[in-house]
Amino acid sequence: MDSKVCRDCGHARPLTDFTKNSNSRDGYAFYCRDHARRRHRASRDRRTGGPRARFARDTVVPVGSKWCPDCGTVKELSAFGRNAGNKSGINSYCKPCHNARGRTSKEAVGGERTYHLRRRYGITAAQADAMLADQGGLCGLCRAAPAAHVDHDHATGAVRDLLCFNCNGGLGQFKDDPALLRAAARYLEAHRAGQLAGPVPGQRR
């Protein structure tokens, strides 16, 4: 076999027009390279909210300026945010376009709250609300104060319960170490027992 029919255009094309695909029976992609690129661009546009502008070769970008691929505009560097992940240290997109991309990403997963919960803890807003309902709205540790924070295992990332501000912060101060927490409990109990037994020698009354 030296040719293959592209599923998009329906034309028989040489195998060199297809990339390799180990999941396909014949070992080649379902779409020719041209239509695979079109599909990739269409998928990206759906995720980002529209086609990106193309950089014209005759576009002049003065020193201290940068071209934004989303709005296709040359702007001063002050119009771009910082990004330590880029070699230049500057975002690829201007601030308005960067913010618009962020909103699109958050809306795609069900809103800003779900976006942050999923990014940090791997749960949705609906799952967090269900946990809160199961706990009766109260902290999963002290069972007294309102639950306001997602508690998770820093070693595994697994979500445990929803805790109040003090309990969540307290576990963090003790580094989520059960041995350290037990030692703290013994310390408090020993001193409380000593207080009940009588004043400490040398202590003023």
UniProtKB/TrEMBL annotation:
GO terms for molecular function: endonuclease activity. InterPro entries: Endonuclease_7 (IPR004211), Endonuclease_7_sf (IPR038563), His-Me_finger_sf (IPR044925). Keywords: Endonuclease, Hydrolase, Nuclease. SUPFAM superfamilies: His-Me finger endonucleases. The keyword Hydrolase applies. It comes from the Bacteria. The keyword Metal-binding does not apply. This is Endonuclease.
